């Protein structure tokens, strides 16, 4: 009789242990998902909207603020991000920055690309070193050389082709077709990010590598040399940023 009476107790204990195991498994799953998606950009979370990039040459930035404006008709406007530059203030709607994943993690190859591109560009080699037959359009040939030196081989010498290859190899979009008028104030770049410039029709026409401190390394069609310049529009209307 005692043995039979012990069976319900063991059954309850088994259920309790099973429930505990399920709870622990769910907690582990939540932790894994949070680690995998925690870097996704969320416009509703004020704390996750900014990334501080020190040493920006345009000027010293204060901490950006986010707020909601109320229009005269009572409707709320989108969150705005306020950038402060010495002698100049600019309010940019977050949606116009076209952010996709500005806090995407960078690989060792991306870090290598930024350092190596800066070192090569300092020597100001001729464009013909990377594309002898067409030195005026050697921007992707230069970035292909940098990426190959950092372990990414077989890159295309065409801007659109190289963009497609990088996306297939796991490169993450930081911002997609952002207006280049915001380029001097764009604070989400990391050394090694690739900047793809679009023409008005949407087709890509130029490419450079960000090397930190508001500077990029790339070819010049007028000087026919590689050099380091400040981030700018380069005569294009929009820009897409990739992070490898």
Poorly predicted sequence stretches spanning 5 or more consecutive residues: 1-7, 37-71, 76-88
Specify the CATH homologous superfamily of the largest domain.
endopeptidase domain like (from Nostoc punctiforme)
> Mean of the pLDDT scores?
76
Class inferred from helices and paired strands: alpha+beta
Overall, the morphology is elongated
Strand content: 15-25%
Distance between the termini: 69 Å
Q: Please, how many domains? A: 2
What can you see in these coordinates?
The chain is of the alpha+beta class and 244 residues long. It is 30% helix and 25% strand. The chain is elongated. The chain contains 4 helices and 9 strands; from the N terminus they run αβββαααββββββ. The strands form 2 sheets. Strands 4-9-5-6-7-8 form a 6-stranded antiparallel sheet. Strands 1-2-3 form a 3-stranded antiparallel sheet, with no helix packed on it. The longest helix is centred in the N-terminal third of the chain and has 36 residues, at 2-37. The protein has 2 domains: 58-95; 108-243, endopeptidase domain like (from Nostoc punctiforme) (endopeptidase fold (from Nostoc punctiforme)), CATH 3.90.1720. Residues 1-7, 37-71 and 76-88 have low confidence and may be disordered. Helix 2 (108-122) packs across helix 3. It starts with a helix and ends with a strand.
């Amino acid at each position: 009789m005692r043995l039979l009476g012990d069976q319900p107790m063991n059954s309850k204990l088994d259920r309790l242990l099973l429930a505990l195991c399920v709870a622990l498994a769910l907690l582990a799953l939540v932790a894994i998902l949070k680690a995998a998606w925690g870097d996704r950009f969320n416009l509703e979370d004020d704390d996750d909207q900014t990334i501080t990039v020190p040493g920006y040459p345009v000027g010293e930035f204060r901490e950006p603020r986010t707020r909601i404006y109320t229009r005269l008709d009572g409707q709320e406007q989108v969150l705005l991000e306020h950038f402060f530059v010495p002698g100049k203030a600019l309010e940019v709607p977050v949606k116009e920055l076209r952010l996709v994943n500005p806090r995407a993690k960078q690989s060792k190859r991306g870090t290598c690309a930024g350092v190596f591109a800066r070192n090569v560009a300092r020597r100001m080699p001729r464009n013909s070193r990377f594309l002898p037959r067409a030195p005026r359009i050697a921007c992707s040939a230069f970035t292909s050389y940098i990426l190959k030196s950092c372990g990414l081989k077989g890159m295309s010498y065409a801007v659109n082709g190289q963009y497609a290859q990088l996306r297939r190899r796991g490169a993450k979009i930081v911002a997609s077709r952002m207006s280049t008028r915001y380029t001097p104030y764009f604070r989400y770049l990391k050394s090694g990010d690739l900047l793809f410039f679009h023409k008005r029709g949407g087709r890509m026409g130029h490419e450079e590598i960000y090397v930190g401190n508001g500077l990029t390394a790339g070819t010049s069609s007028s000087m026919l040399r590689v050099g380091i310049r400040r981030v700018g529009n380069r005569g294009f209307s929009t820009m897409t940023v990739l992070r490898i």
